[in-house]
Write a structure and sequence with these properties.
The structure is a homodimer.
Chain A lengths: L5 H10 L7 H12 L3 H17 L1 E2 L6 E2 L5 H4 L4 E8 L2 H10 L4 E5 L18 H8 L5 E5 L4 H14 L5 E4 L15 H9 L11
Chain lengths: ~200, ~200
């Protein structure tokens, strides 16, 4: 690209470092910002700097939060004895959107991955084991990805929680609601038969 | 979306205002920035503010530039008697990338569009007519979009340049190099026959 301005070139280079943003898209975004009022661009950049500089991690669950304790962990309405273990904040948002979970979360910040050099020590696992040892937690629900890394992480945590008097469960894997049986992959279909639930109790949504 | 943080929500809302960025992509970008070093995010936001606040328009051609006169208009190597009229800075970049044009540009900043309320007065047209009247310009090349608005704008400028001793031309429209004749739309194919060029001169690239 031949830029007529170094300012434009720098801005495009910076925008193109974002994931999923190519140089053509970056140029379109830069020219869009150029045509917006200066105050609007200032609000935009200030919101991003504020996000980076002022955000905290909840001391209880590890989720991103505006304060030291997130709203979920601070709420007396939630069941603090039931903890759902997830990989990151997006999973918390997805489960919250269902409105089906009244417990609290524990955000690991990733999964164990020797390939990417992520060991258990790099993750928010120790506080979960400590909380469980304290005796206030009744059930830990694993909601980790169905990958080798996710399964490894779930098993690692399970081994640490054994003999601590905590029930460990895993979210149901099966055929998505609305999906055709004939088009479901073999592994999912196989699991959905093995993990069948009593009728009609299992049909409740 | 249920955000665990107002800072995150604000950042996602701001990112989602960018063209072509939905809320899910905005969330992905915000979480990406959260995981980058603070200095990197500062460089990123500073480059965007600098772009908005410090960029100028070239006084000669209207293209975006770091100084009052852009590099192209300031260059003694360019042919200042041949002016290519384009809609915006992206067209300048595209033509510069070809390396086939040694003249200078004139950036209108848009095309006449009664539907969007853009009249000739909103565009950078008057300086082009004034330059042409001054007698230093020999040829004006129209490189505007092949839309009703682009054609209207080209004709409007053509009428203003009549009897000013300036040759007016338009970039060739025809079958793109590598395209099949049988799959070319009728209008393009029709124009390519009407505007045929002498062989083998017209084959030069």
């Amino acid at each position: 690209m031949n830029f007529s301005s170094r300012l434009l070139e720098t801005a495009v280079n910076e925008l193109a470092r974002l994931p999923g943003i190519g140089r053509k898209t970056a140029l379109r975004l830069a020219l869009h910002l150029l045509n917006r009022p200066a105050e609007e661009v200032e609000l935009f950049t200030r919101s991003l700097m504020a996000l980076r500089q002022e955000i905290r991690r909840c001391k209880v669950c590890g989720n991103i939060s505006d304060s030291d304790t997130c709203e979920i962990c601070a709420s007396p309405k939630r069941d603090h004895a039931t903890v759902c273990v997830v990989q990151d904040t997006r999973d918390v948002m997805a489960i919250e959107n269902t409105g089906q979970f009244a417990g609290i979360y524990h955000v690991l910040g990733g999964v164990i991955s020797p390939m990417e050099g992520i060991s258990p020590d790099d993750l928010n696992i120790v506080p979960l084991i400590e909380k469980s040892s304290a005796g206030t937690i009744k059930e830990v629900i694993m909601a980790l990805p169905t990958t080798v890394e996710g399964d490894t992480t779930a098993f690692y945590i399970y081994r640490q929680l054994e003999n601590k008097g905590v029930a460990v469960s895993v979210i149901a894997r099966g055929i998505a609601i609305g999906d055709d049986i004939e088009f479901t992959d073999e592994i999912t279909l196989g699991r959905s038969i093995l993990n069948r639930t009593p009728y009609p109790t299992g049909m409740q949504r």
